[in-house]
Every structure is written in C-alpha cells, then in structure tokens.
Amino acid sequence: MITRRRFTQLSALSLGGLSAGALLSADTLRAAPASDITLEIAPYLLEASPKHHIRTVAYNNQVPGPLLRMRQGRPTSVSIRNRTDIPEIVHWHGLFLPSEIDGAMEEGTPLIAPGAEVHYTLTPDPPGFRWFHTHIRAGNDLSKGLYSGLFGPLVVEPASHPGDYDTEAFLDLHDWDGQFQSSNDGNMAPAYNVSTINGKMLGFGEPIRVKQGQRLLLHVLNSSATDVHWVAFAGHTFRVIALDGNPVATPQSVSMLSLAPAERVCALVELNNPGVWILGEVRKHIQAAGMGIVVEYANATGKPTWIQPEELVWNYSQFAATPTTDTRTPEAQRIDLVFDAKFHGHGAEEQWLINGKSYPDTDQPVLTAGQRYRLVMKNNSMDAHPIHLHRHTFELRQVGRKPSDHSPDLRGIFKDVVLAPPNLTTEVEFTANNPGLTLFHCHQQDHMDRGFMMVFRYA
Ligand SMILES: [Cu+2]
Fold first, then answer.
1. In a 3-state reduction of DSSP, which class is residue 420?
2. H, E, C per residue of 184-225
3. pLDDT at position 284, please?
C-alpha cells in the first residue's frame, strides 16, 4: 500500500530527479514503511440491526476492529492514521510495551493529532488473547472513548501452539447509545439502549456455524465502557482455560462466564448438542437489548433456543491452583490503596479517589526494578471496580476479602484486570519488570475520567 506521504515522496523523486540512494535513506524508510499492521481511525455508521444505526468511530471501518495476529517476540511494524477531528491514542492492552508506545497519555505516549499518521515497531509479549482500544477521555460525551467502536481483538501467538480445538470464534460484548442516569447510590452512571455481540444485536449478525463433535474455542472480550456482563450458551457448558489470555492453573467447566470491562475469557465448548441455540447475556433485559448471538449446528433448523439460568454465578478462585504449603513466592513489598468516592450531592457527578486523591493529584508510588509488590486494595465504595495495571501481569492473591477472613492466598491466576468487589479488600502481586511510567486505573470509563487513575514510576 502506498500512503499519501509515500506517494508525495515518489512524485518528488520523479520531479526532482533525486538519486535512488535518497529514497532508501533511513529517514525515508521511517517516513513511509510498509507496515505489518495498519489501523485507520475514522467515523463509522454501525448497523446493529436494520432499526438501530449508531454513529460512532471505528478501526478500519469495522466493529470490532480487525483481528490482529502477531507472533510473540517478532518485531511488528504498526501504522496508525487518525481521520477524525479529535486527538486519538491506541492502547495495546495486556502487552509489555515501552511507555512511549503503550498508549496512555499519562505514561507519555503522544496523542495522534487529527489527520496525522504515526509509525512504530512493537515486539509482542506475552502470548495470549490481548486487545487494543482507544485511551482518550470521554467525560460526559457517551459516544467517545470506550463508549465508541474503537476496540479490537489481538492474539499474540506463542512459539508453539497448544490449541486442542477444531474451530474458534471471537466474541466481543459491547454497549451503545448510553445516557447518564441516577443509580442506586445516587451517582450518575451510564445506562444503554443497545447491546451487541460483534457489533450486532441478537438475530441480526451471522450465526456461528458449527458441526457436531467439534471442539469450539471461544475468545470472549468485554469491551463495554462500564458494564460487567454474564453470558451463557444454551444447551452447553464452557470449559474455561484462560483468563485475560493467560492459562489458568485449574481449568473448570462452568454454566456461565462473567466478564468485567476489559476482561477476556478463553473457553472450550464441546459441540455435542445439535440444534439452533442462543449464546447471550444471562440478564433478560440486556439480551433483549441485543446482547446475543445464534449458534447453528449444520443441518439443524428451527427458532434459536434460549434456556434461562436462575442466578448469576462466577468466582475467580475456582480456577486457582490447589492450595499447597508451598510458599516459595519471593517476599512482596506491600502497597496499600484505598478506593473511595466523593459525591457532590444527589444526582451530581462523583469524584473517584485513590488514597484520598483524584488524578492528576494521586500519589506516584516508586517501584524498584526486580522487586515484587503486593497491591492491597481496600474498596470502600459501593461499586465493583475493574482495576487494570498497564504493561505488567499480576497474580491474584485475595479477591473480596473481609477483614476477618484469613483464607490462604490464591495461586495460579494471572491477569491484567481484576474486578474488586465493593466494601472488601482485593490483593494482587506483580514483579516490577518493565521500567517506565505505568498507569493503574479503573477500566470503567466514567470512573477513570473522574480521577480513578494513578501512575507508578520506576526508581
Ligand atoms: Cu471503577
């Protein structure tokens, strides 16, 4: 592909009679590379159904953005062009990248100006199901940031593939067309009119077509700006093998999945129940808003069938390693974090606080490279928060611990997002192994926009 800039240079070459050497200079190559991956950010009209058109912004004119496959450790060149009229930024969620390209302004990644194009090379690591998305502020504009269509799936292929499956499908859960409404605790939270899987409302996208006897590998991503989702597959169970792209210590069969914003689940499904089924949101009103997809066995006919589960079930700890007396984990230095909200009257905007301060005034904890840290997160608010650490992977230790609870630490669940339940303490550990500014924040767009962010820096 010839970019416009490249074309201009080629024209200049023919007009100005430059030597071939000039064309091959390092500067010229940097200005106009043939990239492995090209993303174009541009306005897009999403047809969620023939009656639901959503004016949004998307990568490469599709929602979700293109499925990107990269090879672990293989340098991959990227070109990003911003064809909107506001500055944009692309975050590579779950990768260990330098702060300058990770994709957060707070880490020093430059914004991409309207009309501008950027080029850089990244080396993908760790392997697994990752994703990419915008990281701009949305504020009160519920069409910007993660409320938009600027997200897409990314797979970093390991050197050797352990996959024992016949077919795979990527499912993206997203909510659209929101307005701020007063929620239970009096603050304003987005409520949505349209919910989709892979950009389509139930019944309006292509079904997932399968055959009896196959093993289907599902890669599910919740790209919703603010909402947790539960999904079930009528007539089938999920065998969860990875959380946030990282294999779990103990794969388990479950009747439903739950994903907080930014979380991913990889699950195998044995296709042994022929028919036409619905895979969708468990809560009726959200499935009615469109969050579902039809799964159709070969030669099966009839209306898609849904089986309504009675309750919402999910628990990270079932995927942990069996407790042992093994305590070889290196000593972790404790970092205490308290999450809270400050309200400005009923129905007014709240401000989110970490240790009593809102970004950009939050503390900047200093990390020492090589040191292990334990984040002890006391959530004093009435909301669950999907907490995300950039550029690192953490291991879950305690999720929703009461002060009186002395249950042993969890082992063997490695993630980059954890849903910290309300009024309880959640603890994770990570090794500071990627020097550079590192953003830590709630992945709920309205919370991060209202101060729920903090930057770690390295000594
Ligand atoms: Cu939050």
1. strand
2. CCCCEEEEEEEEEECCECCCCCCCEEECCCCEEEEEEEECCC
3. 97
CA-angle at 392, arms to 374 and 416, nearest 5°: 85
| Contact present, 321 and 414 (Cβ < 8 Å) | no
- DSSP annotation of 410 reads P
437 CA distance to ligand 1 centroid (A)?
Answer: 21
Report the alpha-carbon distance of residue 448 to residue 159 in Å, rounded: 36
DSSP string, 1-41: ---HHHHHHHHHHHHHT--HHHHTSHHHHHHS---SEEEEE
Closest C-alpha to 103, from 119, 91, 85: 91
Ligand 1 centroid – CA 445 distance (Å): 8
Place of tokens 């409404």: 181
pLDDT of residue 296: 98
Q: How far is the CA of 442 from the centre of ligand 1 (A)?
A: 5
Other C-beta atoms closer than 10 Å to the C-beta of 372 total 16
Sheet containing strand 238-243, edge to edge, reads 188-197, 167-182, 215-222, 264-270, 238-243, 246-254
Q: Please work out, in degrees rounded to the nearest 5, the angle formed at the alpha carbon of residue 180 by the alpha carbons of 379 and 341.
A: 25
Using the mean position of ligand 1's atoms as its centre, give its distance from the Cα of residue 119 in Å: 32
- Helical residues (DSSP H) of 275-398, grouped into ranges: 284-288
User: How close is the Cα of 319 to the center of ligand 1, in Å?
Assistant: 24
Tokens 């939270």 correspond to 189
pTM beyond 0.85: the answer is: yes
With a cut of 70, which residues of the chain have pLDDT below it? 1-33, 160-163, 184-186, 324-329, 344-349
**Residue 128, φ and ψ in degrees, nearest 5:** 135, -175
